[in-house]
Amino acid sequence: MSKFNTARAPAATSPVRGEATPSAVTHQGAPGYARDARSELFLLAVTNMVGEHTFYESADARDTRFTALVHAATLKDPQWTARFLGWLRSEANLRTASLVGAAEFAKARRDAGLDGLGRQVVADVLQRADEPGELLAYWTSVHGRNVPKPVKRGIADAARKLYDERAYVKWDSAARAFRFADVLELTHPAARDTAQGELFKHILDERHDRGNPLPETLGVLRARAELTSWEVPRRRALLQRPDAADVLRAAGMTWESVAGWLQGPLDARVWEALIPSMGYMAQLRNLRNFDEAGVSDEVAQRVAARLADPGQVAKSRQLPMRFLSAYRAAPSLRWAWALEQAIAHSLANVPRLPGRTLVLVDTSSSMNMGFSRDGTLMRWDAAAVFGLALGRRCADADVVSFSDRLLGGTRTKVFKLRPGGSLLSDVERWKSGGFFLGGGTNTAGAVKKHFAKHDRVVILTDEQAVYGDVGHALPAQVPLYTWNLAGYRFGHAPSGSANRHTFGGLTDQAFRMIPLLEAGRNADWPF
């Protein structure tokens, strides 16, 4: 009788690995499963808003744990850590966590007396022109003003790549501790061509008030200086001209700079002149301003078409939650369909799963923590978005909000998916219908209460369960997928094999693992 060559596929593995039996407890006292250092770092990094408190962990404690994990991973597996930090900035689009990670990567290598990789990693994560100064500010505030050569050279490489006239007028500001001139003087990047060399010289001249004239090669700065010399009435008169957008674009005038340049409010005519030169993110975040200024429907239709374009969505690298935030902020409904299409494009990797799926969304009090800088989005908003998106892609899904009751027991509420409905309207119905429950996190109780011979269970949670062992709450042969949205140290179930898998992040990429695992194929890191 064959022992190995059978029709049944071997159990697939996934990259986030945890112990098989619990060695600790969660913050709420349920059995807690430790993970290896790479897995813990990954889950923390993809949910980490650096410097922000979470329900169970202070900002300082969280940042200290992140630093320690980066150091440990750097010394144990520098190549993996380098790839991870590059992916964290580019594909995951998490700017601050990747920047801090790169600085700490270089610090760990330097402290261990190791050469190589630090410069490359620093250069890779710096992808926007304000970030060289940001990394210098982080380094000097945490590690002092002695910046080692690998860090300096990585920052110099990034400045050479990112610094141009438009970047200078957009990002250089007296409000920043490290301005472009400081970056140039501290890191000494070699200009890539004559024009950039002239720009570097001008930046230093301006910072030190040398009074040298603008070189002829710097056309954007010269155009900007011309506009700045105009009196306010002439500035406003420009907005009446059909070529206003071209004139402003040639001078590198962003919507933020135009607001100060006009010394007054941005009315509909001003916005309509600015919109053609605005980036995708700038348009997305200004929908309320467009409405309040009375931008015409014709112009709004062009903005909506761009927002809904799948190529533009992909290029913008906006997180799905950004579209929910824009939807909630916009006072009119003329953006709703475009934003619905945009969030659908941003969630394109959510798979279409056959069979029956139980989707459990944690809406306990610990999930009611800020998930955006302005505090308008919470972790449970993210759980609802991803859970409802998955529910809509499944052939047959039961979507349930869960927490626990004050005096014990499980509190749940089943959400009925309406045929033909939209994700954004589902999320708002979730909010208005009382599906954010609060209270504790009785995950095992919710699984036992709602599991009814489903083919799989997906739980979106911070994993801080209050009762029971979640990993043993359903039969071992049923896949349990945990979507971690907080990155705390201990998880609520085993992970990595035996039908128990943990994912994490603020994008849809990890969803791609589910079909792989169910086809018996091992899933690896997304980088």
UniProtKB/TrEMBL annotation:
MF (Gene Ontology): metal ion binding; RNA binding
Q: Which domain of life is it from?
A: Bacteria
Predominant location category: cytoplasm
Which UniProt keywords are given for this protein, alphabetically ordered? Answer: Cytoplasm, Metal-binding, Ribonucleoprotein, RNA-binding
PROSITE patterns under this entry?
Answer: TROVE
Q: Where is the TROVE domain?
A: 24-355
Which InterPro entries does the record cross-reference, listed alphabetically? TROVE2, TROVE_dom, TROVE_dom_sf, vWFA_dom_sf
Determine if Ribonucleoprotein is one of this entry's keywords: yes
Q: Can you list the GO cellular component terms from the UniProt entry?
A: cytoplasm; ribonucleoprotein complex
The reply to whether Cytoplasm figures as a keyword in the UniProt entry is yes
Disordered: annotated span? 1-31
Q: Which cellular compartments is it found in?
A: Cytoplasm
The Swiss-Prot or TrEMBL record describes its family as follows: Belongs to the Ro 60 kDa family.
Q: What name goes with this protein?
A: TROVE domain-containing protein
Q: Which species is the source of this protein?
A: Amycolatopsis australiensis
